[in-house]
# Entry
Amino acid sequence: MYNSIGIIGGDKRQLYCARAFVDDGLKVMLGGFDKIKSECDIKVASVFDTALLSDIIILPLPCVKKGRLNAPFSGDEIYFSDEFTTVLKDKKIFCSMKDTLIEMMPQLDSKLLYDYSTREEFAIQNAISTAEGALEIAMREYEGTINNSKILVCGYGRIGKALSSMLSSLNADVTVSARKKSDLAWIKASGLIAVETSLVDTLESFDIVFNTVPALVLDSKALSHIAKNAVVIDLASYPGGVDFEACARLGICCVHALSLPGKTSPKTAGETIKNTIINMLEEDGRCQKLA
# Structure
């Protein structure tokens, strides 16, 4: 049985993840949170001690930033040193960006690394949280109402599906772009206007444009045609799918909204990480249930 959990690095999501485990009666230690140690109700230790004294390690989302562990609440930058690797070896580690972590710490056993960010239940809840955060940005930046606004959503993945459904429920006039014929069919079946992504720049102007596609979809031509007077919100991972220089040139209000669950709904995001890890432990034959 596993009696202790070490959560190393991360933002408010990891704090709420820790509290969710504590609420289940588990022993939790935080590493890389010394900036907020005095106001934290969970034990905070050094990164080394947290790794050494914990049975299971949880690393943040994203796991790596600029070649270091993502730890905004740490007073020191946390590098993937030999000492750090040594205390992590032979531990079961739950992380995001598993392949990147292996590149940074090749001495770790990949069989003991579990990527919670690839799980479908995590991705679905993350998409819902991202969509809600995107709505909050739109309501703040757009000087009108969502109701009756003409809105374009580029992409019909998990985030696109959640976002277009929310917008429709607010009585917006929603157009959704997709590449797959099956996605276009589902968009139409949902009562929304469907358009092939390659034809986006042939549409008329919109009030708000959301992009969820991690490739350049909204170039200068498309922006000048459909978004000249719109608020553009890019939800795609860096470098995004919007020509930001063109936005600046054209005077278009554009927001690159990254890591929204961590910024707008860290409690739900943290609890989602915890629930996903519990599921993984219960399903994997190599892992035992937490004590």
User: Anything to note?
Assistant: The mean pLDDT is 93.
